[in-house]
Specification:
5-stranded mixed sheet; 8 helices; 10 strands; alpha/beta; 27% helix; single chain
Length: 254
């Protein structure tokens, strides 16, 4: 194995966008086309790899909630191992790898190992999926900003670092990622901190895929509405008046 100081390979951290291969950036497409190894999870545009990167070996590193799981430490090791063997390694993630994608951890690991690394930003699901569901995360007269937060742990969980009370009074649009299982507890915390239970909310599942579906309800009812709809990860929740900002498009003539 080549020593890290004489590595001839490299790692490219590619944000794959929200799922639709058409929303992969040109730079991301070019990186995949040049890859020897693609280390990917299920949220990237995996279905398009046969066409974009037919030459590459595909390494799947699953992170399925309550299911298949590849430790982040092992993913880091894989990137370095393949790069040290002289390969061009693309780490393909859904959305943008620097937004809850742990791309920063992978970057630091490569740098510490002496492996050349670069980043190709991706279209973030936090903004693109609501847009595809007809929701702008900001809108003049309704919202002057947006907060993107993780709902991975409930507000009363000791691991939670989100100030939900501050968000409740911020007047910002709130976009919640990884919050399907905790959505009821999040809604309760926001209402308890002063956000109106009638605040418009929406939950969008499987964004940017043919299976995309969404449900809209007042904040106090959004969790039950998502549950009744059988929503499961990946799903994004938007809370704020922007949920009702856009008029429905006119019917298209046959």
């Amino acid at each position: 194995m080549t020593d890290a100081t004489t590595a001839t390979g490299r790692v490219i951290l590619v944000g794959g966008g929200p799922g639709d291969p058409g929303l992969l950036t040109v730079a991301g497409h070019d990186a995949l086309a040049a890859a020897d190894i693609v280390v990917t999870d299920r949220l990237g545009p995996v279905a398009a790899l046969d066409e974009i990167a037919p030459q590459a070996e595909i390494v799947h590193v699953g992170k399925i909630p309550r299911g298949e799981f590849t430790p982040q430490e092992r993913i880091n090791e894989l990137l370095v191992e393949h790069a040290r063997a002289g390969r061009t390694v693309v780490r393909l993630k859904g959305g943008d790898g620097y937004l809850f994608g742990r791309g920063g951890e992978e970057w630091n690991h490569c740098v510490a190992a002496g492996v050349p690394v670069e980043a190709v930003p991706g279209v973030s699901s936090a903004f693109s999926v609501p847009a595809l569901a007809g929701i702008p995360v900001t809108h003049r007269g309704l919202s002057q900003g947006v907060a993107v937060v993780s709902g991975h742990v409930a507000p009363d969980d000791p691991r939670s670092e989100v100030d939900w009370a501050a968000l409740a009074t911020s007047r910002l649009t709130i976009v919640i990622l990884m919050g399907v299982a905790t959505l009821g507890a999040i809604a309760e915390a926001l209402v308890a901190a002063g956000l109106s239970p009638d605040t418009p909310a929406a939950c969008i599942a499987d964004g940017a895929t043919p299976q995309q579906r969404s449900v809209r309800a007042p904040l106090s009812q959004i969790a039950s509405a998502a549950d009744e709809g059988g929503f499961a990860p990946p799903a994004i929740t938007v809370v704020g008046d922007v949920v009702g900002a856009l008029d429905s498009p006119a019917p298209t003539s046959p």
